[in-house]
Amino acid sequence: MKRISILGSTGSIGTQALDVIEENSTEFSVSAVSCSKNIALLCRQIEKFRPQAVCVEREEDALLISEKYRNTEVFYGDKGLKEIASMEDCDMVLNSLMGMRGLEPTMAAVDAGKDIAFANKETLVVGGELVMAAVKRKGIKLLPVDSEHSAIFQCLQGSAASNVKRILLTASGGPFRGYSAEQLEKVTIDQALAHPNWSMGKKITIDSATMMNKGLEIIEARWLFDIPAEKIQIVVHPQSILHSAVEYRDGSIIGQMGVPDMRVPIAYALSYPERLEMGSSMESLDLFSLKEGMTFYPADRDVFRTIDLAYEACRLGGSYPVVLNGANEVLVEMFLAGRIRFIDIQNTLMKVMEEHKPEYRLDMEGILEQDMRIREKMRNMI
Ligand SMILES: NC(=O)C1=CN([C@@H]2O[C@H](COP(=O)(O)OP(=O)(O)OC[C@H]3O[C@@H](n4cnc5c(N)ncnc54)[C@H](OP(=O)(O)O)[C@@H]3O)[C@@H](O)[C@H]2O)C=CC1
Ligand SMILES: CC(=O)[C@@H](O)[C@H](O)COP(=O)(O)O
Ligand SMILES: [Mn+2]
């Protein structure tokens, strides 16, 4: 039985992972669950899955949980996340945290020799070089959960990297596909949160609307598959049925398709190289029901400027991706709090990238320092 420790078990990915685990309870057990502030849901998860350890963000919540569940080890804060990422009674860590806060626990898991099912793209954006070097050194598996990266990983099975011509990274285009820059000036929070195909946490949903999600995914793919960003092409595919594809040097394109349901890539990462029986709860893709067919377009990079920013950050390296990500995390938070307009996200990101004085060869401390500085700058700027 594989023992899984889940960082961010109360979120969109975390809860869907627990659904997969519950359906396959002979294959998996839960070593640890964790959340930020959704204590009510965390308590229900503790009662159902009986983990050995839990982690919450605040000390006061940790005290409450310790009193309620006396046989459970309770941790809190960033240190606590590292504890449950490296605990002995665990074979695999699912990192479904939101944001670059996942970087340190990822490194803790790698250092402890744990395989990782990996959803937390911001971590690879800021620390891809560091994480992938450690993954290689320790010989652990870092298995992508992000739907496009799971698709690419599946398409690459059995092929040498030297055979790859390019990666076709699909994007739904988000709720504002086809909008002009003027139209983006007037969109509301509710409109931005209405993703056409996926139900996800708020931060990634806004990233999909600005297309920064695709930008982050370019950098994520660059590190996961050790491929230069120039060989990654964004393909807008509004139906989200083809989850991405790999073009080989002989002209073959191999893609991965399925209904847009995150339980599929989650299950693959948890069970790799096997496949789980998903049973009747998993809808089959009925190709005859695709009324609008499957369509493909280039991304509108004049309107969605985040895409070029991500290519540029990836090309320049050093602190650029850290700053792009940190600024974006703060800006999305501010947009969701009603403090800035939607268009201000990309406008501010362009300014931040232009003004940035880069540093190179960052270690963990350097990354955290750059992240802290940009967050401070953003808060002063707005
Ligand atoms: N949702 C999706 O379908 C997809 C998500 N991803 C990526 O997966 C990651 C998770 O996304 P998603 O599940 O949507 O996000 P959610 O916001 O739904 O969940 C985030 C999880 O992290 C916890 N968390 C947030 N902040 C902290 C903190 N400071 N300390 C400890 N725990 C914290 C949350 O706890 P609490 O509930 O208490 O706030 C929650 O459990 C992101 O990197 C996203 O880009 C990738 C592809 C698809
Ligand atoms: C489900 C998933 O992997 C998301 O990252 C999804 O891709 C978001 O949709 P967009 O393609 O609109 O960014
Ligand atoms: Mn994705």
Automatic annotation (TrEMBL):
The gene is dxr. Belongs to the DXR family. It comes from the Bacteria. NADPH binds at residues 10-13, 37-38, 120, 122, 201. It comes from Lentihominibacter hominis. It catalyses: 2-C-methyl-D-erythritol 4-phosphate + NADP(+) = 1-deoxy-D-xylulose 5-phosphate + NADPH + H(+). One of its GO terms (biological process) is isopentenyl diphosphate biosynthetic process, methylerythritol 4-phosphate pathway involved in terpenoid biosynthetic process. Its EC number is 1.1.1.267. 1-deoxy-D-xylulose 5-phosphate binds at residues 121, 147-148, 172, 195, 208, 213-214, 217. Residues 142-225 form the 1-deoxy-D-xylulose 5-phosphate reductoisomerase C-terminal domain. The keyword Oxidoreductase applies. Keywords: Isoprene biosynthesis, Magnesium, Manganese, Metal-binding, NADP, Oxidoreductase. Mn(2+) binds at residues 146, 148, 217. This is 1-deoxy-D-xylulose 5-phosphate reductoisomerase. Pathway: Isoprenoid biosynthesis; isopentenyl diphosphate biosynthesis via DXP pathway; isopentenyl diphosphate from 1-deoxy-D-xylulose 5-phosphate: step 1/6. Residues 4-128 form the 1-deoxy-D-xylulose 5-phosphate reductoisomerase N-terminal domain. The lineage of its organism: Bacteria, Bacillati, Bacillota, Clostridia, Peptostreptococcales. Pfam families: DXP_redisom_C, DXP_reductoisom, DXPR_C. NCBIfam families: Dxr, PRK12464.1. Its cofactor is Mg(2+); Mn(2+). Catalyzes the NADPH-dependent rearrangement and reduction of 1-deoxy-D-xylulose-5-phosphate (DXP) to 2-C-methyl-D-erythritol 4-phosphate (MEP). One of its GO terms (molecular function) is manganese ion binding. The keyword Magnesium applies. Residues 257-376 form the DXP reductoisomerase C-terminal domain. It is an enzyme of class 1 (oxidoreductase).
